[in-house]
């Protein structure tokens, strides 16, 4: 059974990552991604590890088995078997966070307003779902509606994280961008990226 939270933004992002992981084949795992140093398998490990890190920050237990910023690229099982427990742990942790409170995060910023913390976890899941989908030629799961809800959290957390290499410099906006393209450019991603780019 799929775990859900009281955070619609996080549920939507988790659904995007879950669906993207479910469609992966063994042949997809070594493909290059918009995260230039990482393959699909490494982005998947990073995304799952980050969700575990958010859960551990809230609950004080668990956490990723390996450094999400140094993923090995070697999966012990199917992609969904890696992702599902991480999403379930994150959903269960955020289900304990009240909307008017705060939540600890694994980010350098530490504790954030609850909505920003949930949005940060959602941002990570949704954008890496996009990375994996475009790397494997699948439809992008990041639509304008979800992206519009993620933009405020992105603007609240991303700038300090650029110095750590978590995000590339923002790309110039395009006046014709929808919310998804605007978000991707803000995060340093080309919304038209392909493996041949």
TrEMBL record:
Xref: SUPFAM superfamilies: DinB/YfiT-like putative metalloenzymes (SSF109854)
Gene3D superfamilies, per database record: dinb family like domain
InterPro entries documented for this protein: CHP03086, DinB/YfiT-like, Maleyloyr_isom, MDMPI_metal-binding
GO MF annotation list: metal ion binding
Residues in Mycothiol-dependent maleylpyruvate isomerase metal-binding domain copies: 12-133
Official protein name in the record: Mycothiol-dependent maleylpyruvate isomerase metal-binding domain-containing protein
Organism expressing this protein natively: Actinoplanes nipponensis
